[in-house]
Write a structure and sequence with these properties.
This protein is α+β, with helices and mostly antiparallel strands. Strands 1-2-3 form a three-stranded antiparallel beta sheet. The protein has three helices and three strands, in the order H-E-E-E-H-H. It folds into two domains: 47 residues, no CATH class; 38 residues. The protein is globular.
């Protein structure tokens, strides 16, 4: 198996674990498209229904509190602010040249 085979469906991003910056991957295809996962091979694995149902219950009960705490952390934690800045630079789309799209008259 080649590395390109695994990372094909994922883009590298920075994330926070505790107060440390860690490289993780955002799934661009597969069952877990859009999620941030630790290993790119996770993008193609099946969803664990038990965990999914458990998280939905927790979010129903504690969703509001989780939102308040995460907003506070994202505003005030220096690691979170650094990660936001670095990910913005990393994921900016490249500027495309208009030279190729000009029509010939």
């Amino acid at each position: 198996m080649l590395v390109a085979d695994i990372t094909e469906g994922a883009v590298s991003v920075l994330s926070k674990t505790g107060n440390k910056m860690v490289r993780k991957y955002r799934c661009t295809s597969g069952v877990k498209k859009g999620r941030i996962v630790a290993k790119p091979s996770t993008c193609t694995t099946a969803i664990n229904v038990k965990k999914s149902v458990g998280l939905k219950k927790t979010k129903r009960r504690k969703g509001r509190l989780i939102g308040i705490k995460s907003r506070f952390a994202k505003r005030n934690n220096p690691t979170s602010r650094r990660i936001v800045r670095l990910n913005k630079n990393r994921l900016k789309p490249t500027r495309r040249s208009t030279a190729k799209r000009r029509s010939i008259k």
